[in-house]
Amino acid sequence: MSTGFTLFPAAKKEEYGYGVYDRVITNADLEHWFNTGDDARIPAEPKAVGFVHCVGSRDLKAGNSQCSKVCCITAIKQAMEMKEKFPDAEVYCFYMDLRLFGKKYEDFYINAQRDYGVHFIRGRVSEVSENIAGGVQVKAEDTLSGRPVRVQLDLLVLMAGIVNNPDNESIAGQVRLETDSDGFLKSRDNILSITESPRKGVFLAGACTGPKTVPETVAEARSAALAIHSYLSGLE
Ligand code: SF4
Fold first, then answer.
1. How far is the CA of 136 from the centre of ligand 1 (A)?
2. From atom 6 of ligand 1, which residue's Cα is the shortest distance away?
3. DSSP 191-210
4. Structural domains of the chain in order of their starting residue, each with its CATH number
5. How many Å lie between the centroid of ligand 1 and the Cα of residue 178?
6. How would you class 189 by CB atoms within 10 Å of its CB: exposed for 0-12, middle for 13-18, buried for 19 or more?
7. 79 with 116: CB under 8 angstroms?
8. What is the pTM of this model?
9. Which of 52, 55, 64, 67 to mutate for ligand 1's pocket (most ligand atoms within 8 Å of CB)?
10. Tens of pLDDT, residue by residue, the chain (236 residues)
11. By alpha-carbon position, which residue is closest to atom 2 of ligand 1?
């Protein structure tokens, strides 16, 4: 089983204005634009760009209390890419706390500040509204300095988190598996047997059991393939 994941629907966080304000997009929209150059919402020469972390993650009100694991480092990667494309633009990341656990990820964070001049503001965005120039005004509280912050942006990128595939429940039902409280498939054990389901002969890989990075997904796919080989060879 490898049913993957879906992205949190950013429009559900109405306060950020996705689908309402032209200059509010998601991480997936920006990645699509990096790859295709196709998105009329992205201005030709943005002077200020913001990233909001934890959109639909770590958020009980949004129905998802879990961390999505990948969006802090993705925000940093995308912030640096924006600086490469628009060196004169000011780029801001609004975060609650940074969760960077991969190899060399801390170096990315340091480079983003030191070499690219990305501004990191610790604090939740409280309000987004359209400004007279057609961009957006963002209000937040900088919890490190204790001061309110207000910035005018030409583009705001929402880091929409990883949520379960909504088909998990019905797919699980067909092979008599269970889903957990977040709608992901349940493993036999989350630490020792993440790629094994509670049912003999049914194996799991990747984001069907929870948010995963690409290296984790590849490692799980290999592990599941080996487990299936052992199972079919009668070795277990
Ligand atoms: S990885 Fe970062 S942005 Fe994503 S949910 Fe976790 S803390 Fe928030």
1. 23
2. 67
3. TTBTTB-SSTT-B--GGGSS
4. 7-161 (3.50.50.60), 165-232 (3.50.50.60)
5. 26
6. exposed
7. yes
8. 0.95
9. 67
10. 999 999 999 999 999 999 999 999 999 999 999 999 999 999 999 999 999 999 999 999 999 999 999 999 999 999 999 999 999 999 999 999 999 989 999 999 999 999 999 999 999 999 999 999 999 999 999 999 999 999 999 999 999 999 999 999 999 999 999 999 999 999 999 999 999 999 999 999 999 999 999 999 999 999 999 999 999 998 76
11. 72
Bridge partners, 91 (sequence order): 49
Q: How far is the CA of 53 from the centre of ligand 1 (A)?
A: 6
Ligand 1, atom 8, residue with closest C-alpha = 54
Report how far residue 19's alpha carbon sits from residue 62's, in angstroms, rounded to the nearest whole number: 17
For residue 171, which of 181, 182, 185 has the smallest C-alpha distance?
A: 185
Helices (H), 3-42: 27-36
Protein residues with CB under 6 Å of any ligand 1 atom:
53-54, 57-58, 67-69, 71-72, 99, 159, 161
